[in-house]
Specification:
Blueprint lengths: L1 H21 L13 H11 L10 H32 L5 H36 L2
Length: 131
Amino acid sequence: MKLTKLALIILILAAVLMPAAIGYGAISTSTKGIDINLINEAGKQAFPAGSGAPGNIPETVGRIISIMLSFVGTLFFIFIIISGIQWMTAGGNEEKVTKARTRIIQASIGLAITVAAYFITWFISNALGAI
């Protein structure tokens, strides 16, 4: 029960904070106290010409999807570790062992689906980039 509540809280926080973290500052059009030239120079230093910086919308969307899938994959991996610890500390209680085993199987399936989605996204973005 506690793990379900924790997972729900993590997913809600991810859904709320991920768009804010990705688009931080993209919405604001005000430049009060901000030196635009300094920002442009920092961008040139962070992404020099030919460094593979995202230059168009499909690349940017692909990177966002990649980041989100990596985050979800990490969550499934954490679920597997937590369930393994619960299994080891079950102390012979068959109900806890069955619950942990079921959770490990479900997290493994979720991890496999996430990895497959990541590779499908990678393949499609490379195919679209070749056009």
